[in-house]
Amino acid sequence: MEQTSTRRVYANSWMTVREDGIRRPDGSEGIYGVVDKPTYALVIPRGDDGRLHLVEQFRYPVGERRWEFPAGTAPDRAEADPAELAVRELVEETGLVAREMTALGMLDVAPGMSSQRGHVYLATGLTAGAPQREHQEQDMRAGWFAPDEFEEMALRGELTDAQTLAAYALLRLHDERRCANR
C-alpha cells in the first residue's frame, strides 16, 4: 500500500489524527484514517510475594472505571526512551520504585487505526513511596492482586484493558521461559 497524500485532521496534547490518501496494490485509491500517539511504556509491578500491582481509573471513552497496569506516554506527544518512561510512570502512578526493570516485549495498540506502540517492563524489587500523579489521574486507585485473582477478574470481564491483558501474556511467556531454562 502506498501513501499518496496526508493531511492533519485534528491535534491536541496527546494525539493527532490524520487522513492519508492511499493506493492499494491493485491500483485502486482510497483513504485511511490514522491516530498518531507517542510510544508508551507499560509496567507490571510484581511484589516479592508474586502479587501484581494494578491501578484503576475512569476511562472516559468507555464511560467506566478500568483496572490496568501502570502505563503512559511523555507529555505533549514527545517521544521518550521507553525504559526511562517506564521508571517515571511507575513512580508517578503508584509511588513504587523498582530495583530491577526487565523488558518483556512490545505491543501495537491498535494497528488497524493507530501508529502507537508500547514497551512492556516487569518491575521487581519494589520499594513503596507516595504516588506523584498528574492532575487528570487524581481519581486513580491502586491495589495488589494475586495472579489467580487477576485471571479471575479477566474471566469475569472486570479486567478488560487490552494492553494489560497482552502484557500479562508476555509476563506468562517470560516466566515459562525462565522456568524452562532452569
List key phrases describing it.
single chain, 182 residues, alpha+beta, 4-stranded mixed sheet, 3-stranded antiparallel sheet
Would you mind describing this structure in some detail?
By secondary structure, the chain is of the alpha+beta class. 23% of the residues lie in helices and 41% in strands. The chain has a four-stranded mixed sheet, sandwiched between helices. It has a three-stranded antiparallel sheet with strand order 1-2-3, with no helix packed on it. It has a three-stranded antiparallel sheet with strand order 6-5-10.
Short description:
The chain has 3 helices and 10 strands, in the order E-E-E-E-E-E-E-H-E-E-E-H-H. By secondary structure, it is an alpha+beta fold.
Largest sheet: 4 strands, mixed
The overall pLDDT, averaged over residues, is 93
Poorly predicted parts? none
DSSP helix count? Answer: 3
Number of strands: 10
Secondary-structure topology with pairs:
Elements: E1 2-11, E2 16-23, E3 29-36, E4 40-45, E5 52-59, E6 64-68, E7 71-72, H1 82-94, E8 97-108, E9 117-127, E10 141-145, H2 147-155, H3 162-180
